[in-house]
Amino acid sequence: MATRKLFQTASTTCRTLCKAPALRHSRSPFPRSLTSSAIHINRRTFASTLPTHASHADNLSTTDPLIQKAQEWFDKGTEKWNEEDYQGALDAYEKSIWSRPTADAHYNVANCYLALGNYEKAIKSWQESLALSPSRSDAHINIANVTALKLRDLPTAITHYEAALSIDPTDGEARYNFGVVLDSMGRLEEAIEQYEKAVQSGVEVAEKNLRNAKAKLKEREVGGGKA
Asked: Following DSSP, what letter does each residue of 141-201 receive, concatenated?
């Protein structure tokens, strides 16, 4: 019971941190002649602020009619997203995928599902993005945050935080959120390690969590191992 209460308290802090930066929507993944610049979405959510990664479609010919059609639907999806028409954006991004699947289109589909409150489908779409671009840590972070905060599937969240940090060990926000999950599970030594690295990366909110985790660990040690 105490652990559950701890996680509810910690997850509120985690949600505030994750929502602070604006969501970076994936840029168009198609050839440079058709590519628009990265779009910063004002709507706040769980998404990482790491730079987006180009997909496998970058090297494809611009004369391919399927790529041109996919680009048109991708741009339409971005237009609908900017209008906060998330269902319209979802429909357009899915049509882009039907024309030519790309990691960024799947990533944006996931963002749409997240905005619409369908967490399971959001996670599935981030996984499909990772299947095409395994090195993008932002998809791992989004899966971890949503599985921890919304689905309370902490083991899965841990797996994806670890994967994200193996790709980008310098991501302080990911380390902070990872620490919150470990803290809520009573894994205080590991949580302290993540909080310390988050503080070193400039995540100021981690300082309070670090002090609290150290105090709880000391109390546990004094009490002979009792939580």
From this structure: HHHHHHHHHTS--HHHHHHHHHHHHHH-TT-HHHHHHHHHHHHHTT-HHHHHHHHHHHHHT
